[in-house]
Amino acid sequence: MTTSPLLVRYAAVRARSLALAAPLSAEDCGAQSMPDASPTKWHLAHTTWFFETFVLQAHEPGFAPFDPAFRVLFNSYYNGVGDRHPRAQRGLLTRPSLADVLAYRASVDQRMARLLPAVAQDAAICTLVELGLQHEQQHQELILTDIKHLLFCNPLRPAYHTGTEGADVSAVPGVPGSCGVSGAADTAAALVWHAFDGGLIDMGHAGDGFAFDNEGPRHRVFVQPFALASRLVSNGEYVDFVEGGGYLDPSLWLAEGWDWRASLGLTQPLYWPRVDGGWSEFTLRGLQPLHAALPVVHLSYYEADAYARWAGARLPTEAEWEHAAAHALEQAERESPCLAADGMGVAPPQPATTHALSAFFGVAWQWTQSSYAPYPGFRVAEGAVGEYNGKFMVNQYVLRGGSCATPPGHERVTYRNFFPATARWQFAGIRLARDPD
After folding, report:
1. pLDDT tens digits, residue range 417-429?
2. Mapping DSSP to helix (H, G, I), strand (E, B) and coil, where does residue 196 land?
3. H or E element that contains 366
4. Which residues, in sequence order, are CB contacts of 405 under 8 Å at separation 6+?
């Protein structure tokens, strides 16, 4: 019997979630460090809830829920489905246990394995399952960012994963060493400015392959001439901003950002404690000496914007970012067609010694100055699934690219991530832009 390709993909994505949780104790999996973060146990259950609620309930013969209470406990924000447990209280869910949640996953996986071959020719169901898998990949990234914040809040500063001597978190499937500060060059490549002509450009998803609804429709926009930095801002460069008084100079900050910074007494990035008079960085491998050459991460929009102003530059718009990333991809395809053909619209990594545009993907999400808003012609899908993105298009900013915590193959040139301006716990960094002289 031939195995359905969708079932193979389903099994692989679901297995990776369990692999990410494997280094954690049951206690780790149940705790919540802040309202914006969720326990690992909740992520494992919620992603399972998605398939049970939106796929099995509608299409499984003789459907019966694994546990009727889970419909409320693990609903995130789908008002069309019904009541929800408060987000800030997810860490209070000591029951069901982690073992119960794993049993829930196993049950739904078994039922999905029976259903998928039978519906393999139904395009609508397959599209919904793919949405569920992409949704789970988003939560895989959140598992890493949320557990990092939780472990940082622990005064013992335990590591998520240490591995064997000389190893790093790359031992965990899909978690590159850059998330754990390992194997990077000693110095950052020289920053080079790449100029782009202005004019009309096309942006947004073209319709081939998967995309979230907020990535389209593809449309035409006008951009002024601009220049984009060849790489991301490094830790060493950001140290200069910190030690040069950047956090104490209100002229560099948006008014709302300054009030936010002052109210919290912030003087450095989230995971930068002082140790023995020097800067350290808390990573997924635990506390490490700050690596000056690595890109700075875990910055809010306010911090990124203040740094850009201090550096005599600005943040790019999302149209500028996408235009430049598409250009880098096209150049990579011309120079190395076999390397660029990964099917996801992602340029292969560039060597740190070149002056090419690099690190669009797989290192850090990059803040843009663009507010998260619908593209012209955007329409919200019918039903509860239509709540996925559209209703969040207010009071948030767009980030582009992907980080070291983003699952492999999940990135796209058109992918639009979004967070409020105060969000710091994501792997978010800075790529500078500037206007012509």
Report:
1. 999 999 999 999 9
2. strand
3. strand 364-371
4. 141, 144, 145, 175, 179, 427
